[in-house]
Write a structure and sequence with these properties.
Chains A, B: This is Glycoside hydrolase family 65 central catalytic. Chains A, B: It holds the Pfam family Glyco_hydro_65N. The structure is a homodimer of 773-residue chains. The first copy, chain A, contains 19 helices and 33 strands. The model of chain A has no long low-confidence stretch (mean pLDDT 96). Chain A is 32% helix and 24% strand. Chain A folds into two domains: 304 residues, Beta-galactosidase, Chain A, domain 5 (Distorted Sandwich), CATH 2.70.98; 388 residues, Glycosyltransferase (Alpha/alpha barrel). By secondary structure, chain A is of the alpha+beta class. In chain A, a hairpin with a 6-residue loop joins strand 14 and strand 15. At the A-B interface, strand 13, strand 18 and strand 19 of A face strand 13, strand 18 and strand 19 of B.
Amino acid sequence: MIKDRFSGKLKEMLSSDEWMILQPEYDPEENLKFESLFSLSNGYLGIRGSHEEGGKITLPYLYINGVFDKSETFMRELAALPNWLGIKLFIEKELIGIENCQILKFSRALDMKQALLAKSLILRDKKGRETLVEGIRFVSRANVHRMGIKLYVTPLNYSGIIEVENIIDGTIINFYDAPRFKVKHTYMTANEPLDKDGIYMEVATRDNHLHTGVGCRIEAYKNGKSILKNRMFHAFGEQGVEFGDFDAAEGETVEIIKYVSMYTEREAARYTLHTKVKEEIDGFMVKGFLEELEAHKTVYEEMWKAADIRIAGDFELDRAIRFNVFHLMSTGNENDSRVNVGAKLLSGEEYGGHAFWDTEIFMLPFFAYIFPETAKNLESYRYHLLEAAKANARKNGFKGAQYPWESADDGTEQCPDWTIEPDGSCYRCYVAVYEHHVTAAVAYGIYNYVKITRDLDFLLNQGAEILTETARFWASRCEYVAEKDRYEINQVTGPDEWHEPVNNNLYTNYLAKWNLRYVISLIDTLKKGHSKEYDTLMEKTGLTAREIKDWEIVQEKIYLPRKEGTDLLEQFEGYFKLEDVVIEKYDEHDWPVRPEALKTKRASQTQIIKQADVVMLLHLMGQEFTEDEIRKNYEYYEKRTLHGSSLSPSIYSVMGLKVGDDSKAYRYLKRAAFLDLLNLQKNTREGIHAANTGGVWQTVVFGFAGVSIGEDGMLTVRPHMPKEWEGLDFCLRHRNSRLRITISRDNSVSVKVLEGEALEVNVNGQIVKAVRE
Amino acid sequence: MIKDRFSGKLKEMLSSDEWMILQPEYDPEENLKFESLFSLSNGYLGIRGSHEEGGKITLPYLYINGVFDKSETFMRELAALPNWLGIKLFIEKELIGIENCQILKFSRALDMKQALLAKSLILRDKKGRETLVEGIRFVSRANVHRMGIKLYVTPLNYSGIIEVENIIDGTIINFYDAPRFKVKHTYMTANEPLDKDGIYMEVATRDNHLHTGVGCRIEAYKNGKSILKNRMFHAFGEQGVEFGDFDAAEGETVEIIKYVSMYTEREAARYTLHTKVKEEIDGFMVKGFLEELEAHKTVYEEMWKAADIRIAGDFELDRAIRFNVFHLMSTGNENDSRVNVGAKLLSGEEYGGHAFWDTEIFMLPFFAYIFPETAKNLESYRYHLLEAAKANARKNGFKGAQYPWESADDGTEQCPDWTIEPDGSCYRCYVAVYEHHVTAAVAYGIYNYVKITRDLDFLLNQGAEILTETARFWASRCEYVAEKDRYEINQVTGPDEWHEPVNNNLYTNYLAKWNLRYVISLIDTLKKGHSKEYDTLMEKTGLTAREIKDWEIVQEKIYLPRKEGTDLLEQFEGYFKLEDVVIEKYDEHDWPVRPEALKTKRASQTQIIKQADVVMLLHLMGQEFTEDEIRKNYEYYEKRTLHGSSLSPSIYSVMGLKVGDDSKAYRYLKRAAFLDLLNLQKNTREGIHAANTGGVWQTVVFGFAGVSIGEDGMLTVRPHMPKEWEGLDFCLRHRNSRLRITISRDNSVSVKVLEGEALEVNVNGQIVKAVRE
């Protein structure tokens, strides 16, 4: 058992192996990866799994979702905020730290069940003094403004004075290890004692002057007695450091507790921040560290009841899937509709914490089925930024609402016009100019969210308004080509970014058409049955019957390229005229090998694609295509997809299973589930791949379990269990019920109602009544 | 040749081996030692030999002499000021640095002739890219406000963009690696571009708000063409960072030059600092880096002409002695009479840059004989602080002037009342309470300075005033003991700090007596021949005939303990009654082994002493003792001295030679000369032992060369050449002449006049006329 690597109180506290992600030894080269894997988030903030004692190889970032700043960079990005992890222990000036000492024993583990990070180290310093340092940290989900660290420190072969530095580090900058990109997004407004002791630091973002306060107190106890003495506070520029020491005796354990709180002006008035933080810490200390941890664990218990997927007979994959679910669910915020989920969650700095189409297409289904309040917040986030999307459309010469390719807090386009490569070369980035399908994703997200949650209230009010404005955008984006009597979307990029730009990307055109069609029907529904909502919509949007009429024409005549006379959909106009290069070799992981042809020509000159594009369309709009169409297109494009994006394999896996090709589905899932754990994309140091975590969940639930919602709105379960699995078990919300779905090796399914009413479910083509467990 | 380890232009530039101190390989454990050894000073400031690229194990201190601050520490100490060394080079984010790369070739060398630090490294990064980085740095002595770095950077097996970070680091704090003592002595008042590029940073001391400005510019050239592009300035909190990049090509060398300037409010008004620094850098750039270096070298050429000691036949020792002379002469300041020389020069932080008795007793003779302007400044420093010394005496309940044991800028006592050990234990420090002989050292220093330099003007004016006030102190410090009809100084500590406090320390009592006697005679001289100075003195000091009369009595009746009926002087009253422990064993370096007896008792209970005490008295006041007395006491105390202080061996060496015991003298000199080079005291990381550098010089000149000034004022040379030496050659100033003294193996001496008039010299007992070379 992994917990056997920990001792005493800690061991008793930790969960069994299926919940534990272990770092069994320290390798500096792996440190940044583990910082990402071991990041903790409570939805409000996220902090990477950096070591308390700091070090040379670290990106010790803490982000509060929603605290963005641009300054002299290309885009508004999540500002690295003061890091409160710092606890340095010294014996006579010698740091007890992994980089300074010989490591006699090393274990760190993420306990996903309790959402805590545990460590157990035995470190020997240069003078041979050995210290056992164990501990846990957590960011409370019971109260997102409380977080802390508890260490158990035991001198193993010496007695003496141990010195403590309790640190809040405000020197942190974004892109800390990238000279060209380094940027400081905050300035310091306070670095002072919290109270008679402790530390309080306040920083403000440079552009908007949004203030964030962080405070902490540290205590050390032996046998329940407080023993920290000689406390001194120092403001070392942008570091707040509290010094203290205590007498340590061989074999006796000292407990060190650091209580931390953070607030921003988003939750409390600027002038109250220091008081707010102080009072929160006071309350935390009165409640007690372990009691707060208990409350936090209780919240996670409920979350896991809703979200956990259990696979019998496939231990490692079961745990890896749990890891993906853990990070995705931890980052979702059920309380704040002004934040989204960034492309790296809150675990790393790539993409600046921006929301992409990843949210709607990859992550939203998980939240809609499991945590509908969070899903609603993700939808509401888009509604809050509708005005900005309209301004964006105007700026680009279009009507309606064009959502930005990358979205931060204010809804302006955050995808930079210029990109600088690590080698310093600079190139114009056209993604924001050409890649419009994010607006389709927003529209589709509303449809899908409502389909899953039946949140008609959202649809009839906010949803309809967004869909109207996005439809308006598509209508204005389409060009009428008279000689062909059709509407076209030219100079556009679909999900496959290796062909940029193209004319008439099928995925984009199809979703534009769908958006128009869907909103026309929705408005009709409103008109017929929801006159109040209808009137409001018409008033707000200034929509006229004439405009709707125009939309009818556009959607009818929008060009959808395909190979005439066949079922083969064409990714974009002219795709089939490109050199037809096919993937022929697969490596030892069954991963496609880049065809030889790409050595002499660019992918854009061939039919080789980066990721699911037509197949993505089939995934989203499956009900509008025949099984035959889906299978043929899947087969065609699968042979031409190099999966250059982490967003690709999960979709191919789901669709492969749908058309009966499970040859690669299991391996795709494995790749996706271990993508970050094994650092398969080599960039986990930059953070967890958020879309992939959602993709993993979809692969299991939509792919292997075959969950879908039929046109009749009935939940359908039609599993394709891989031979490796003995059983699969997970929960879903559907309509007003919470269901447990249990699937056996032979694809037989049991659906039980955990909460809410009994309902009918289509299981393997049979309609069955799911009842209470 | 050491310079063969460098290439191209650098190799041509460097000096021959007797001038070079080489670090042949990189060992992190040795880094702090080499930072001290490789520190550079121009008298105005000192900067440790830290690496341009920074690192984990570093104490990258820069001090400007005179910029002190106390804040929450125990004492006013030299404030660590912003470090301007930072130049980081990156290839695609990978730092080209010794801690990050594989070191294929490593050489660093201090070129003492030119006072520059050179390096030559070949570093291979993780991706196998190899870069040759060579360079030099210097702090100009031709213009102490100019300093800079020149690097030669050559990619050996790649071409690409190299990124540069030009850094001024204001995050620096004193006692950086000692959690308990860490302190920030400055606050930042500016971190901004110098001009359209470059960096300007200004900090102020926290107590006195003394501002220091530091600015820099960086340029990169290939074939004479400026190639640095994409410049960006960032203020990262307390770091000023200028980013830039350039295209580097395999095998082509890029020259990077960093021009730096510093000014404080001591030299320029606060509001002019930025402009002053900018203009200085502009002037530096116009003049050119190599041209400024040339001017700097010319100054050093002159300094070496005056100061160099050449020993033939003993290469390593010759170079080690040069190393000591180099650091001592580099730190002396010929322009500023408000600064002294700290116990660690400007090369480390121990003792806070404070002046001790070390200045007068160990360092002053060197400066008086070689750089009399600097010696005069050291004397004037004490005169400037006479009022503070008077206040100090008053505070302690005495009259006259009591100089502080440790002296910074304002002359108040800087020796802390409390000391905290590294393990955190705290004890009361009585040094400032009991150790009064520093006041005797100041008085003796005046006498000795004038004896060597014949600066009668100083004596008759400032000197006489100091001596009067110190005499007054001693008179008030002495207690009359009626039953013994004698004056005593009780509760006092002499140079030997292992007996603290004692009654009637002979060294202290003797020098007090001497001070009184000397000033009485000086006043008499003034009265008889310098009535103006006499009147001024009487008026300034309020001295009366009655007081002088009292002094006569005190000095006559002051108790000088000795073993009655013998020549044996008693270190203090009751010393001979202590258990007589004698050193009996010597280790393989002929170093005394701590006697067994000290395992069960403290040194204070025995006659074992830390350092020269009676022997120090004999060294200073030799002319007042017979040769027999000197020999007997030397022999007695030598057997009881453990040399627990670096101030001890050199004095024993000098005195041993004087009494014909050259058995240990050569080894003592070797130990002293290599003390820092070989880190024999294990604390060279804290800085060069300043007193020891002066002691080394004295051992050679006063000991082996046997130089002294007779009672008739005539220069006497009476060498005791060790068998290891083939010849000894050095220069001195005496009266108004500069002399070259050349000594052969057989102790024959040639004295030539280099500058000034011919004069008579006593050589080996013969009076000879020294004439022009």
